[in-house]
């Protein structure tokens, strides 16, 4: 049934106008929103949309009748003045940008309300035209409105495409841009003008507050999926356009549902999907990464505890093969005992640990693992102790083995330091290459022996 | 008391109460939060109405305060999960506002709860809605705003040191063991309560204006928090009174002209403040130029 309705909807010329209008609107505001996001202008859309009110009123007072072109001109001028004031207030006083944004938003809007009441008293207008402009009536978009929206939207997209490099520079490194002689101030004003224009064409369809949403939400959603500005701009445009169409269709097939808010809710839905399910930055991916890291740390801690205990006994007798109780392991590296037991069982299933009564002992295979984990850990210890010497190495990447990212000469030095500090793992598995022979020579050549710190 | 006196009193209560909280919003760089919360509580108001089937002030106050706190929580959570703070504010409040508008148009089309009423309440009608409490018959808005102002004053008075420290140096506050997060949510709770209590009677735009503009005007005139708070009260009250006079003079919207008057005060302070003003900065710049030129000779 819905399908038939949809087909009918797309055949209805009026509905087609509305859908086209909202699609273009979402597309252009999505694209511009990316730049706004990086310039920290996200809330600028909201401020500009409110600041446009006095402009509309003055345009109406001067011109004397309702005309979409005149309204848009007034709104654009007032919006641009508001946007520039926001910049100037924070540039010339200690007031922070967010406060100046709030001042301009409310102040201009207050002036607008005063003018609005003045207009309604003079009896020249039915206020409804202005109301529609402020709160948005997407369902009543007609052909000529959509023409205006399309022209402006295409203009905005064309400017963005033509100045993409420059805008990118404005977002990420304006100082450098100034350095190579680009007019960054003018470019910033242009970006503001473009945002104002996007807001002004959006006012009529989705209204003041919701226009702010169209500038923010698609861009923030797109940010989750990519680290590239190009990809993000495209994705954000697609998200914006998609929510425009989705919102329009949904509100058309449900009675009593206003278009503007539904468009925003559609965009919010896309945002929530991104927030949870984006591959790298999404909450789910983050949670999985966290869980995996925790699993790895618990298993490695257990292996290392077993190794430490075994090593101590190995130096006296062979009793390490008898294994150790959970309590002993717990004493060395405490965690929840139930968790430790669960992971011990897991290690047993993998064949790295065998249980002997209440005792847990490393198997030959487990010893290999434990040896490599312990060696890695102790090499790290050395790196940290001699941080002053090795500070240039990137210690952040703890997920990787020390051997993988440390140059060979440094590795040899570290092996030497292990010997000095008597931290060289003593209990070597049969299958592991023992490191004493090849590294011994290097150790003797190493520039410093430990202990000079 | 005359009608005008009531209106000025209500306006002053709104301005004082909002101004007090607003100073801290400005200092914490969260000025847009007032705007965000004032829009975001719409679904709270609608839900409170749908559950209780009354437009009773207290029920709305509770519903909206809860949603206001939720808004603050969402913003904080999004910010903590890596979204830029202004974008986090933008996403949260527009989404909640849209939800509110949809709820209004779906469920309350036949009752008296239209957007115009919720968002742009008019202070001119506030004195006529009388409520009797403790044997006193006063306008409802006076009860509501008086109560919220008293609460705001008490909380800010009791937690003054803590709020001050967390606003200026959150790291130190954390290190000293002050519950920074709780202070944050206490403030957010105050903001939402002020917003809700005020905007039913005076309209959202006046609330947001009074949260920010008097505080910002005061911020330019002093370097001390205590003076800033006092001055913001003063500017709030004066814009309520001055705005009312302007409104009578021009016969226009009262909350609109109160906002306009507040903006006027800000512009004056921006231009002529003794140390921070544009004029004095220009003068000291010129004098510096003169001194340097003389030295160069």
Structural class of chain B: mainly alpha
Shape verdict of chain B: globular
How much strand of chain B? under 5%
- Following the backbone from N to C, one meets helices and strands of chain A in this order, namely HHHHHHHHHHHHHHEHHEEHHHHH
Overall pLDDT score of chain B: 84
Number of helices of chain A: 21
What is the tally of beta strands of chain A? 3
Distance between the termini of chain B: 69 Å
Q: What is the subunit organization of this protein?
A: heterodimer
Strands of the widest sheet of chain B, in order across it, are 1-2
Structural class by SSE content of chain A: mainly alpha
- Enumerate the strands of the largest sheet of chain A in spatial order, edge to edge or round the barrel: 1-3-2
Mean pLDDT across residues of chain A: 82
Helix amount of chain A: over 70%
Characterize the overall form of chain A.
elongated
- Radius of gyration of chain A using CA atoms only: 33 Å
- Tell me the total number of β-strands of chain B: 2
N-to-C series of helices and strands of chain B? HHHHHHEEHHHHHHHH
Largest interface: A-B, 56 and 58 residues
Characterize this entry briefly:
The complex is a heterodimer of chains A (453) and B (297). Chain A is mainly α.
Describe this structure in words.
The complex is a heterodimer of chains A (453) and B (297). Chain A is mostly helical and 453 residues long. Chain A has helices at 2-11, 13-38, 44-63, 68-92, 97-122, 128-135, 143-162, 164-172, 174-179, 184-206, 208-223, 229-253, 259-277, 283-314, 326-332, 337-349, 364-385, 387-390, 402-405, 408-420, 436-445, and strands spanning 324-325, 353-356, 359-362. The longest helix of chain A has 32 residues, at 283-314. Chain B has 297 residues and is an all-alpha fold. Helices cover 79% and strands 3% of the residues of chain B. Chain B is built from 14 helices and 2 strands, in the order H-H-H-H-H-H-E-E-H-H-H-H-H-H-H-H. Chain B has a two-stranded antiparallel sheet with strand order 1-2. In chain B, strand 1 and strand 2 (136-139) form a beta hairpin. Chain B is globular. The N and C termini of chain B lie far apart (69 Å). The model of chain B has no long low-confidence stretch (mean pLDDT 84). Classes of the chains: A mainly alpha (453), B mainly alpha (297).
